[in-house]
Amino acid sequence: MKQRSIQLLLITGILLLLLSWVHLFVLQQEQGANSTLIFWEFQVPRLLSALLAGAGLSLSGLLMQNLFQNPMAGPYVLGINSGASLFISILILGAAPVFLNELSYVSAAMIGAFLAASFMFVVSKRVQNIQSLLVIGLMFASFTGAIEAVLQSFAAPEQVKQLFIWNMGSLQQMSAAQAPWMATLIVFGMATTLFLVKGLNAMVLGDAHALQLGVKVKQLKIAILFVTALLAGSITAYCGPIAFVGLAIPNLARALLKTQDHLLLILFSVLAGSCFLVAIDVLILLLDPWLSLPVNVLTAVIGAPYVAYLMLRQR
Amino acid sequence: MITIQHAQVGYQTTLIDIAQLALPEGQLYALIGRNGSGKSTLLQSLIGQLPLRAGSISIGSFSLEELQKNAALRSTQVAYVASMFAGVEALTLRAYVSLGRVPHLGAFGRLQASDLEIVDEVLKALNLSDLAQKDTRKLSDGERQLASLARAIVQDTPLMVLDEPASFLDYFNRELLLDQLEQWVQQKPERTAVFSSHDIDLCLQKGIPMLVLHQHKLTLLDKPSKQEVMALL
Question: Which residue, A213, A197, A260, A210, is CA-closest to B95?
């Protein structure tokens, strides 16, 4: 059992290296130029943002599924991205240009993500089933969308355009200067998660049971909310809202590894999430001569049917 | 030793009123009472999940309040087997039983070889070895109930509390359960186990001391006859 998991982790790791190489290669072919400057300023940041966003979103999905004790939870379906998105809109449209910097973007997104996650968590205590929770997540997303629309009607065309592009989700917007920041945030989030493994493992039995096993359930839940906000918030700030990765990949991890050992699930989700987004970006690059697709279109084309399949199988 | 003094147990109203009771260790106790008499409620208080309305309970050298405040400490003192475990997808029986070792693990929650040895030994004693790799969702209710017992055994605490641990078990496994519990309490001198049951005949036959809940009172009967028990119920 354990051996199988380790084999799967190795295979996924090798696949990731391979995909990353293909990504760099395809991008270089497309650029046509072979310069070190373009490599470091353009190719590496784009690969990095795919790697980091895939890893971080999958991990935040895994954490949320543990927190909500439901395999259908994820940062996108429960409106965590929407919270981040709303706060970024407020920032772009409302704040003086002086305040529009790296730090303010990321903090706004993280605060928005944290508030949205906390709100959904409180709501989840009051609803009986996941269907209701998903509908509330949907309502929450359309509500924040409406507020954004109202805000936009007051905004200058330039700002609206900026928001529109950001909302499409993209792996190309991160600059070489931003890459270390995003990497630091995501790696910090991942490292923190490793300290939560013991509690996460016990939490699959439910709150009362985990408490009986000595887990400080309340502290653990707050830690999960913080890490989720950190991961989903910072990714949303740098790449825009990206759908389905956070929901689909952890489910794939459990289905393939057949385990609830969260150390293995974390490692696999991180690797597989990275693989998935890098592969998606390779696809985008290959299709680019004919049509230019935003990330969200492709993640939805693959992710949405898979999630629908999971829902059907649950019955 | 479990000592209960002037304890009032219940949610909104006092359901059970215990003036004074001491349970010496090294024993297995059967909690008997009619439906709705408050067996589960009493057990919830005994594990520190439901605060007492008044009075005090001490378990070994700790008061119940101390244990309530400190989940980590409690997990080394009290193990609890709920009446129902529905199973978790992708969680194997062996992985589930291993979670009983959580209170003994380091910060990263890794199981050591010694932990797995304990787990496998208990699985063998409960005839669960062949099911070790099976998904807990795919086990029968009875198999899951035995798995919960195994999980509590490997937790290795002075007190084990079980809420109707035999409700899904067949005749043979009921015997196995009681034998295992008796063995468990005798393995270490400080151990005590309390389980609720409707299986009066089997408990009488095994000579297990009974805690009888009747009219909001709790009475300890050491080696009762059937008439004595029935008279109280």
Answer: A260
Q: Note whether A70 contacts B: Cβ–Cβ < 8 A.
A: no
Q: Do A255 and B90 touch (CB under 8 A)?
A: yes
| Tens digits of residue pLDDT in A124-175 | 888 877 778 888 888 998 999 898 888 888 878 877 877 777 777 778 777 8
Please indicate, yes or no, whether the overall pTM of this predicted structure exceeds 0.80.
yes
State the architecture of A2-10+45-314 in CATH terms. Orthogonal Bundle (1.10)
- For A10, counting Cβ atoms within 10 Å of its Cβ (0-12 exposed, 13-18 middle, 19+ buried), the class is exposed
Q: Give residue B216's Cα distance to chain centre.
A: 21
The amino acid present at B15, given as its one-letter code, is L
Most B-contacting residue of A192, A203, A212, A268 (CB-CB within 10 A), to test interface: A212
> Do residues B44 and B5 lie in contact, with contact meaning Cβ atoms separated by under 8 Å?
no
Question: Domain extents for chain A?
Answer: 2-10+45-314
ipTM: 0.90
Q: Which burial class, exposed, middle or buried, applies to A142 when counting CB atoms under 10 A from its CB (0-12, 13-18, 19+)?
A: exposed
CB contact under 8 A, B108 and A259: no
